[in-house]
């Protein structure tokens, strides 16, 4: 997309109100998409642009509340006229804390190499963002990551990278192995006005960013963590190899190496451990040693022991610091 087209896209989304609502906590992207098949709740019924761009309904091109923005969005290639007089969106929009994030639709799960679908915003994406800047106290935590240099590994749509910038990070470098994800993350950087502080690389974890970026204060990651047998195919954003840890293991090893070399920094990541019985004792003893650090950052839920940390739940968050 040219920079004119990106500016046109951002302008149309702004006029529709995409930066003014926050769906986080209301509905994750998958639930939004399922609303196509159900009755749309009253709070959504009057928001034609939400139904078109976030839910995935086909709407009449002449829908009055969409006005001229329909033409702008057709022009830039986001909307397509598929049924006579009706438009649909090629991507899903997820408004999140002042950001407008575009992804592929949750129903698109496989694509040819180089054009694999970009993961829609999941509860794991949102958990990771909230771990970076918890929602309390109310109000936007502009200064939460003030001045930090951040690396987002497995960036996908770029949601964590962009959220980090909205929370005050000075600069974010992000990497994803999927060319399509790298492309869409760039689009998201631009339409949110954060492209000048965001560098996106396409490549494999740390190799993908090379050695040029120096030391990071914070690394964040939501790697693919679903166990997928070698005989099955799964999308890049899901496939964690036969034990679910193929990417996670390399990511943690590479992050630890860098944290050790720099003698500072923090890794915040989200993962799933299919063989929790084997992993849990190690994870819990590690978390116990970090409980004061975790508590100070609001990462121990219910404020009790590390046993209450979300590490114990299915989608678990492991936090490691050498700060
Ligand atoms: C679970 S998705 C997370 C996307 C996004 N960070 C989020 O939270 O919504 C995992 C992402 O990791 C990417 N990925 C998979 N293997 C990778 C690798 N070896 N190096 C870099 N990125 C990888 C996938 O393309 C996908 O975009």
UniProtKB/TrEMBL annotation:
This is PrmB protein. It comes from the Eukaryota. SUPFAM superfamilies: S-adenosyl-L-methionine-dependent methyltransferases. GO terms for molecular function: methyltransferase activity; nucleic acid binding. CDD domains: AdoMet_MTases (cd02440). GO terms for biological process: methylation.
